[in-house]
Amino acid sequence: MPHFLSTTDRNFEERFVALLAMKREDSPDVDDTVARIIADVRARGDDAVIELTAKFDRMQITPQMIRFSDTEIEDLCAQVSAEDRAALEVAAERIRAYHVRQIPDDQMWTDPDGATLGWRWSAVSAAGLYVPGGLASYPSSVLMNAIPAKVAGVPRLAITVPTPDGIANPLVLMAARIAGVDEIYRIGGAQAIAALAYGTETIAPVDKITGPGNAFVAAAKRRVFGKVGIDMIAGPSEILVIADKHNDPDWVAVDLLSQAEHDESAQSVLITDDAAFGEAVAAAVSKRLETLERRAIAGKSWADFGAIITVRDLDEAADLSDRFAPEHLELCVEDPDALSAKVTHAGAIFLGAYTPEAIGDYIAGPNHVLPTARSARFSSGLSVLDFMKRTTLTKMTPHALATIGPAAERLAQAESLEAHGLSVRARLDRLNGGIDE
Amino acid sequence: MPHFLSTTDRNFEERFVALLAMKREDSPDVDDTVARIIADVRARGDDAVIELTAKFDRMQITPQMIRFSDTEIEDLCAQVSAEDRAALEVAAERIRAYHVRQIPDDQMWTDPDGATLGWRWSAVSAAGLYVPGGLASYPSSVLMNAIPAKVAGVPRLAITVPTPDGIANPLVLMAARIAGVDEIYRIGGAQAIAALAYGTETIAPVDKITGPGNAFVAAAKRRVFGKVGIDMIAGPSEILVIADKHNDPDWVAVDLLSQAEHDESAQSVLITDDAAFGEAVAAAVSKRLETLERRAIAGKSWADFGAIITVRDLDEAADLSDRFAPEHLELCVEDPDALSAKVTHAGAIFLGAYTPEAIGDYIAGPNHVLPTARSARFSSGLSVLDFMKRTTLTKMTPHALATIGPAAERLAQAESLEAHGLSVRARLDRLNGGIDE
């Protein structure tokens, strides 16, 4: 059974804080192993990658096999059914249409002092996307990572995807092709992250690495951060549903289970202003769990981390939701827009009972790579901006420098940075005829 | 003497790569110490902070003294000269005017399938700015960190600034007051980062931490990343000047020295299409170094990491600059706009001989917190966006769900995520009259 809480309970605050603080994920300390793997790939390049792939993915490859050939990609894509391909194409089209709107504007203006100021955005030159192998090898994640990169204008986009025992997922290859990925490598783990960051004989280094992965991948991303840019470190998935009694308990139940089925460490929470509705949802979850394919995973997540919280009113629900800062927030209430306006911290909001979170995982358009573990308090889902960087621009005229230069000189002196001041003073002296001209 | 290179040298590529790869900074391994400090502050709060402050800053304080009182701030600000205060106010005004333009737009639209999509931005609830103590305690950095946060709309903005031996920098307090900082704490080091991230009895935790610091501060920021957001880890400063022969060698010389004087690990590079001009700049640097206050620091930086590179033409200069991806790029050439358009990777560009980089350190308006160590390839200077996060919004109508839902269901099946598919199917069945209504 999930945790049942009510804001009218005398010990509610204590129990709520305990729920928030629950440690859902054991991060095994793999840092030393990962450091060794990275050092090995830096020192020995392809040879190290090949050895580590033999060890971890039980697959002997040659340097020529590290990268999927066009023929291999073609052959694998041919195994994808027309229906699956069509669904991927619809998804790609909608994801692209959403992300195109994120392309930022350049600006340039001249201010009253005569200084021309602005900025411009440019794409990173090369990005690498990590795609997990095995069970969690999701073609939708390929679309969600690759499309923003291509919309940003990244000219070179590489994917690494391990193929344990040599088994590749044709849908992943198809998604990569639809998204316009330029290079696909059949490697994974910390060795793939190291190869992307530092390069090998076969793999040119990239500037930015994104994508989810296991503890080894996450530790490797942390280690190469600085050498390259990385996206956030993803934790287990979360959904928070705020629902009033005018909902079908079964809809809410499957929505809760749609995140619980990802991972035993996932967390699904219902907040409702109607205790009886909460009970009905709990019953509906139990019923669905009887037959769900992934009931072992979903059932454990629901029992360990699931929660049903009864509140006095929806304002209270919005406040509690902000304390969770959930990755996914579903608002199944009469006026979801009004409730949404009261929420500040959430990765993605799904408005109304006809917007199940899963629609956002695949096809709505917004990115499904979202901040977990309360990090929506300070970070955002993946976007086009993650594959771009901004260069600021400053252009002074002699007049502008004469106007604002003295204040800069004064501050340089206050900070005891003499050469800073001199670099302004040298120009001001010229303008004042102090030196020559 | 700096390194002299020319693209016509037979071994140029080799020497250029060596120059790029030079390790300028020894990062002492302070990770274990920092881990202990953080654990101590988490466990013992104010008591730990007070003990560590006594140890590292040689200053015995009480819990009441951790935060600067209004009276103390008032008294310290009264020590600032009217001229310094006026210069800070001019700088603050210009920095604010620039950053206001970075406030991002919210968007919301309905697409042809009837799905309403969009996003909205919101500020983090609380931010903490680290300000170094001692020599590198720069009021300009307070403005550059605090103003974007306040422009973003951060309601609670805290500063930590160590005051070794009890000595506070009045200009730092004044800058904080001008920028609208809400709380100022007289602590520093890893203990300050831990207190901001986890909170103590006196200091409420924040969601985002920015600002430069020494190796302990940098290691602590890396460790608390995930619990809170952090900005980039700043490395030693860099300037790259591209200048043709129609420049005053002395101007370029002081510009190069304005970064060299920051730090023995700073790097100043001139790229010119005229070898004689390069020699003249080298001579001018030597002359300035004879009298410069910080000549010990600047001279060592220039000798160890300084470089003058002669190129065949300015196109070659732009290419080499992109390989440096410099923090600061000055374009002292006849048509700086045309040359700027050929550059892709730079933190900030300063256009024309009347735009010394130092004007950007203080007063031009763009942020002076910029990517170092080649990270301009994938990251940007500090901005209003660093203190905001984006929530994506999705709202389906029954019609929209009926249109795009089946593709989502198909992809869920392809990924073996049954509950994902069921959450869509449950709604589709209702719409099709398959279950009830």
UniProtKB/TrEMBL annotation, chains A, B:
What GO molecular functions are on record for this protein? histidinol dehydrogenase activity; NAD binding; zinc ion binding
Note the PROSITE patterns from the entry.
Answer: HISOL_DEHYDROGENASE
Q: How does the cofactor bind to this protein, according to its record?
A: Binds 1 zinc ion per subunit.
Name the catalysed reactions.
L-histidinol + 2 NAD(+) + H2O = L-histidine + 2 NADH + 3 H(+)
UniProt GO BP: L-histidine biosynthetic process
Needed cofactors, names only, are: Zn(2+)
Keyword flag NAD: yes
Provide the residue positions that the database annotates as binding NAD(+): 130, 191, 214
GO cellular component, alphabetical, reads:
cytosol
This one is known as Histidinol dehydrogenase
